[in-house]
Amino acid sequence: MEQIEQIKELLERLYVKYNHREFIPPDPLQFLHKYPNPADKEVVALLSAELAYGRVEQIEKSLNDLFSRMGASPYAFVRNFSEADNERLKNFKHRFTSGQDISDLLEVLRDVLDEKGCIENYFLLGYKETDQNIIPALSQFCESLLDRFMKSKKAKPTKGLQYLLTNPEGGSACKRMNLFLRWMVRKDEVDPGLWNSFDKAKLVVPVDVHMARLCKILGLYNQKTASLTAALKITESFTEIEPIDPVKYDFALSRIGILEDCNGKPRLQCQDCELLELCNN
Question: Are strands 97-98 and 93-94 parallel, antiparallel or unpaired?
Answer without folding.
Answer: antiparallel
